[in-house]
Design goal:
Blueprint (H helix, E strand, L loop, with lengths): L5 H28 L10 H55 L6 H22 L20 E3 L5 E3 L7 E5 L2 E4 L4 H6 L1 E2 L5 E5 L8 E2 L3 E2 L2 H4 L6 E7 L8 E11 L3 E9 L21 E8 L5 E6 L2 E2 L5 E2 L6 E5 L2 E8 L5 E12 L5 E4 L2 E6 L7 E6 L2 E2 L1 H12 L6 H61 L3 H27 L7
Antiparallel strand pairs: 1-2, 3-4, 5-22, 6-21, 7-20, 8-20, 9-10, 9-21, 10-18, 11-17, 12-13, 12-18, 13-14, 13-15, 16-17, 19-20
Helix pairs in contact: 1-8, 2-3, 2-7, 3-6, 6-7
C-alpha cells in the first residue's frame, strides 16, 4: 500500500494548476494570432504543407514586385521610344524639305540648323535616366553616360549590348530595357542591302539610284562584293560608256578599306591591269595585293602583278589615299596586312550610257540619271551599320556642300536620298523595338493576373489548414479557464484543511 504524503498531495495539485495554466496560455496565443497551427506539435501533418504554401506566397509576392519594376522600366522606355519616333519623323520631314531643288544656300543652311537641334535633342533622349539616375540605354553600364561626343565631334557609344531581365513568373523572364546599340547604332545603311554613292571627284551631274535586288537566287552568289560603275569617253567628245567591276575579299587579315575609285580605259597601259574577259569568262578576274616594304607602315600595291613602286600606301596616314596603276585607281584607308588579296572582276564591258536606262548585273538593278563625264564613277557597296547621329550629321554636311553646279547638286541629291533611306531604316527599327516593349508590358500584365490568382488560391488553402475556428476555440478557452478556476478553488480549500480546526 502506497502512502501519499501531504507534500506529494499538494505538489500534485500545484502541477495540475500549472499544466492547466500552460494549456490556457497556449490557447490564448492561438486566439491572439487566430492560427490553429503555430508549431509543428499543433498538427504534424499540416505543418509541412503550411510551410510550402508560405514559401509559394513569398515567391509569388517577389514575382509581383519584379513585375512592377519591369513595368516601370518598360514604361520609361516606351515614353522614350515615342520621343525618338517623333524626333526621327521631324528629321525625315526636314530631309524631304531639303530635297526640294528650289532651296538655295540660305534655305539649306536653315534646314541644317534645324537638323543640328534635332540631333542634340535625340542625344538627350538617348541619355535618358530613370528615377535611380541610371541610364536606361546603356545596357549593363547603367552608371556610364552611353552617348558621348568625341574629340572629332562624332558620337561614341560607351554602353554595352546587355539587356536587364526580371523574373515575373515561374520560368518567365521579361526584358526590362533595350541597349542603345540596338536602338541607335545598329542601323542598316542605305536600303539595307546596298549603299549607292557617287565619287566626290565626279565632274558630271549623274545621280545613281538606290539599287534593288531583282533576282535573289543570283544575287546570293555575289553577296560580299562591292561594285564600281566606271564612266569612260572612248575618245574626246564621244558618247560616254559605262563598265561594271566588282571587288571581293580573297585572303584578307588586315583592316583596310579598299575601293575601286577610277578606271581610265584610255590609259595606254590599261591592258596590263584590266581583266580581258567578262564574267564568267576565266579571264574576268585580276588580283590586287598588298606587299610589305622595309617600313612596316608602308605597303606597295600590285594590280595583276604590276607594282605601284615607287608609290607606297602609308598606313600611318589616316586620310584616304588614292593609288593609280596603269589606269586603275584604288582608294585605301585603314591598316592592311602584307599579302592581303582582293579579286577584281569585270561584269559588264564598256556599254553606251543612256540616261535612266536600267543597268542590270548579278541579280541587281540600278540606274543613273543626269549627265556623266569621263572618269566619273559610282559605287554600290554592301550595306553595313551606321548610327542615327552620324546619318543626321552626314545630312547636315550634305546640305552644306557649296556650289550650284551639276556635280555639287548631284552629291547633295545622292547624300539626301541615302539619308532618307537610313532614317526610314531607323524608324522601322525603333517601331519594331517599340512593338516588342508593348508586348512585354502585356506579358507583365498577364503574368501579374496569373500571380494574383495563384496567390489567392494558396491563401485559401493556407487559411483552411492554418486558421483557427474562433467560435470553437473561444468555447474551449472558456472551458479551460473554468477548469483552472475550479482547480485553484480546490487547492485553496485543501490548503485550509487542518486538524487544529477540530480541537
Amino acid at each position: 500500500m502506497m502512502r501519499i504524503s501531504t507534500q506529494m498531495f499538494f505538489q500534485r495539485n500545484v502541477d495540475s494548476i500549472l499544466n492547466q495554466q500552460s494549456k490556457l496560455s497556449q490557447q490564448n496565443i492561438h486566439l491572439s494570432t487566430q492560427k490553429r497551427v503555430i508549431h509543428g506539435s499543433d498538427d504534424a501533418v499540416a505543418i509541412a504543407t503550411i510551410q510550402r504554401l508560405k514559401q509559394n506566397l513569398s515567391v509569388g509576392d517577389q514575382y509581383i514586385k519584379n513585375g512592377k519594376m519591369a513595368e516601370t522600366a518598360n514604361s520609361l522606355e516606351d515614353v522614350s521610344l515615342t520621343q525618338i519616333t517623333n524626333i526621327l519623323q521631324r528629321v525625315r520631314e526636314s530631309i524631304v524639305k531639303a530635297s526640294n531643288q528650289t532651296n538655295g544656300s540660305a534655305g539649306r543652311e536653315a534646314i541644317a540648323k534645324e537638323l543640328e537641334g534635332l540631333r542634340e535633342e535625340l542625344i538627350g533622349v538617348a541619355n535618358t535616366r530613370d528615377g535611380n539616375s541610371q541610364y536606361i540605354f546603356a545596357g549593363y553600364q547603367v552608371d556610364t553616360q552611353p552617348f558621348q561626343t568625341n574629340e572629332f565631334g562624332s558620337i561614341d557609344y560607351h554602353g554595352d549590348n546587355g539587356n536587364r531581365s526580371y523574373k515575373v513568373g515561374a520560368g518567365v523572364l521579361i526584358q526590362g530595357n533595350d541597349s542603345g546599340a540596338a536602338i541607335f547604332t545598329n542601323i542598316p545603311e542605305g536600303n539595307g542591302t546596298f549603299v549607292s554613292e557617287g565619287s566626290i571627284n565626279n565632274s558630271g551631274s549623274g545621280v545613281i539610284d538606290a539599287a534593288s535586288v531583282i533576282n535573289k537566287n543570283v544575287a546570293r552568289d555575289f553577296v560580299d562584293q562591292d561594285y564600281t560603275i566606271a564612266i569612260t569617253e572612248p575618245t574626246l567628245g564621244a558618247d560616254p560608256e559605262y563598265s561594271v567591276y566588282g571587288l571581293d575579299d580573297t585572303v584578307v587579315t588586315g583592316n583596310a578599306n579598299v575601293k575601286i575609285s577610277k578606271v581610265d580605259l584610255n590609259d595606254p597601259n590599261i591592258a596590263n591591269v584590266n581583266p580581258s574577259g567578262v564574267y564568267p569568262d576565266v579571264n574576268s578576274d585580276i588580283t590586287i595585293e598588298f606587299v610589305a616594304t622595309a617600313n612596316p607602315n608602308e605597303f606597295l600595291i600590285e594590280i595583276n602583278g604590276v607594282s605601284s613602286s615607287p608609290t607606297v600606301y602609308d598606313s600611318s596616314d589616316t586620310t584616304t589615299q588614292e593609288i593609280t596603276i596603269d589606269g586603275i585607281s584604288i582608294e585605301v584607308d585603314g591598316i592592311p596586312n602584307a599579302t592581303d588579296q582582293y579579286t577584281m572582276t569585270k561584269y559588264i564591258e564598256p556599254t553606251k550610257y543612256v540616261e535612266g536606262q536600267s543597268i542590270e548585273f548579278n541579280g541587281i538593278k540600278t540606274e543613273i540619271k543626269g549627265n556623266v563625264q569621263n572618269l566619273d564613277n559610282f559605287t554600290l557597296r554592301q550595306s553595313g551599320e551606321k548610327d542615327i547621329f552620324s546619318t543626321i550629321q552626314d545630312t547636315i554636311d550634305a546640305l552644306r556642300i557649296t556650289g550650284e553646279d551639276g556635280a555639287s547638286k548631284a552629291q547633295r541629291v545622292m547624300s539626301l536620298e541615302m539619308a532618307h533611306l537610313q532614317i526610314d531604316n531607323a524608324m522601322s527599327n525603333v517601331t519594331g523595338i517599340h512593338t516588342s516593349v508593348g508586348a512585354r508590358m502585356n506579358t507583365i500584365d498577364n503574368q501579374r493576373e496569373s500571380s494574383l490568382d495563384f496567390k489567392l488560391t494558396n491563401q485559401k488553402t493556407l487559411s483552411n489548414l492554418e486558421d483557427l475556428d474562433m467560435a470553437s476555440a473561444i468555447s474551449e478557452f472558456k472551458l479551460q479557464m473554468s477548469q483552472l478556476e475550479i482547480s485553484q478553488q480546490t487547492y485553496i480549500q485543501l490548503q485550509s484543511l487542518s486538524l487544529f480546526k477540530l480541537i
